[in-house]
Each structure stands twice: as structure tokens, then as C-alpha cells.
Amino acid sequence: MFNGAQRWATGQLSTWQRAAVLGVVIGVTVFGLVFWVSGRLETKDVGYTGVFLVNLIGSASLILPVPGVAAACIAAFPDTGLHPLAVGLLAGLGQGIGEITGYLAGKSGQTLFARNRYYNRVRAWTMKGGGIVLFFFALVPNPIMDLAGIAAGSLGYPFTRFVLFVGIGKILRSIGIGYGCYYGIEFLTRLV
Description:
Elements: H1 2-10, H2 15-37, H3 43-60, H4 68-75, H5 84-98, H6 100-107, H7 119-129, H8 131-139, H9 145-155, H10 159-191
Helix pairs in contact: 2-3, 3-4, 3-5, 4-5, 4-10, 5-10, 6-9, 7-8, 7-9, 8-9, 8-10
């Protein structure tokens, strides 16, 4: 058991283990995407679970843009009855887990993004700065986080450290968004 946990922590997974993890992430993403497109996954209707799922789907999707940050902001509005701290924690957790798809795409060794003009630069930054770079990309809203995840996977960056740095960055960012939207809407309604 320890050997399997140690291999998971260092990112040394067998092909079938990688396929199983990727299958679970893709399955959850497809399941959530179907619910979201069909209109059954609205944060105001499904509460904290919806916040988590929409953000998981938004971060797991490398191709389709799903508005996870917008969902967290809307869920944190005062009239929803959801607490902004809980919204931020669940949104960040969903986003952090969703970023695993980029890591696994890079880990597979077949990156479609190698020709992207930003990829090699992000890869060099990730190689040089490691966790600090991953934390920064997760903390600051930007479209390059997917490239950083792919770069981390292709470089063999340890999986648990990837999840830790990205998860903390995403959670802090989402808590900031939750409170910003909560108090921002309150402030704007007082002005009007």
C-alpha cells in the first residue's frame, strides 16, 4: 500500500492508473457538463454542490470554457443565502481538482500545446520556479493556468505538490472572489 501511495505522490503512475484517474475526472466533467447544459446545474438552485461542480467542470475543461468564477460570484450574492467563505472554499476545491486534467495531459507526454507560443515560456518558468509559479498562476485569474498544469505534468513535477500549490492558490482566489462579490453587490445596492 505504501508503495502505491508513494508512486501516486511522486506522479509515477502506471498507464492504467493514469487512465483510471483521467477517466474519473472526464466522467465527472461530462456528467456535470450535461447537467449544466440542460439547465439543471444552476448555483442558485443547487447551492454549495452546484458551486463545487460548476467550478470543477470549468477547471477540468481544457477546451470548453465554463464560467466557474462567474458561478462562484453569483453564488456569493447576499440574496442566495450561501456564505461567501464556504462558496470560496468549495469553488477553489473544485477548481484545484479540475486542474488535474491539465497535469495528466502533460504527464502523458503528448502535449498538443508544445507549439503554442506561450507554452515553452510557461514551461521554463515552471521548471525554474516550481510550486511558487504554480501557486501564482492559480492565485491570479489568467488563461495560462492550463499551460502551467500541462508543463508541470510534462516535467514530472510531483503530483501532491502540484495539487497542494494549485489548490491553495485556487482556494485563496475563490475566497477573495466570494467576499468581493458578496460585499460588492451589497455596496452597489446601497448606492442605487
